[in-house]
Design goal:
The chain contains 5 helices and 7 strands; from the N terminus they run βαββαββαααββ. By secondary structure, the chain is of the alpha+beta class. The chain has a single domain (about 1-5, about 15-134), classed as CBS-domain (Roll), CATH 3.10.580. Strand 6 and strand 7 (about 125-134) form a beta hairpin.
Length: about 130
């Protein structure tokens, strides 16, 4: 697993002290948790992205859904056209902070078995996404 380098790194920067803010991608599409799976798949396709940040009705980030998760939910035996993102998200998180070191974030991603983490501020608002390179 290699983390995506989204911003140029200065020659004097030492990798040990790099933070998530140095490598995160902009937040990209953010959708509300009451959106249906089918609409979310359409948004994802039109945005040409593999994930969407999901926010609650107060605008706080509550998680991230991937195309694989949405496709699995749509293809599941219990799927209905009223299935909403909040129904498939489960527990809130995992998240990371922009001041988290890259080493800590990579460890958390490996431990959680995720390819992307929402980056949130101290209030829970989405700032970006840290994604693993493919």
């Amino acid at each position: 697993m290699t983390l995506v380098q989204m911003q140029p790194r200065s020659m004097s920067a030492t990798p040990v002290h790099r933070t998530v803010a140095d490598a995160m991608n902009t937040a990209g599409p953010q959708v509300c948790d009451d959106m249906t799976v089918e609409v979310a798949l359409s948004v994802m396709a039109s945005a040409r992205t593999g994930h969407l940040l999901v926010c609650d009705d107060s605008g706080l980030c509550i998680g991230l859904v991937t195309q694989a998760q949405l496709t699995a939910a749509r293809d599941g035996s219990t799927y209905t056209d009223r299935l909403q993102l909040r129904d498939i998200l489960g527990d809130r998180g995992p998240f990371t902070s922009p001041v988290t070191t890259m080493a800590e974030a990579e460890h958390a991603m490996r431990y959680s078995h995720v390819d992307a983490l929402p980056v949130v501020d101290e209030h829970g608002s989405a700032l970006g996404v840290l994604a693993l390179a493919r």
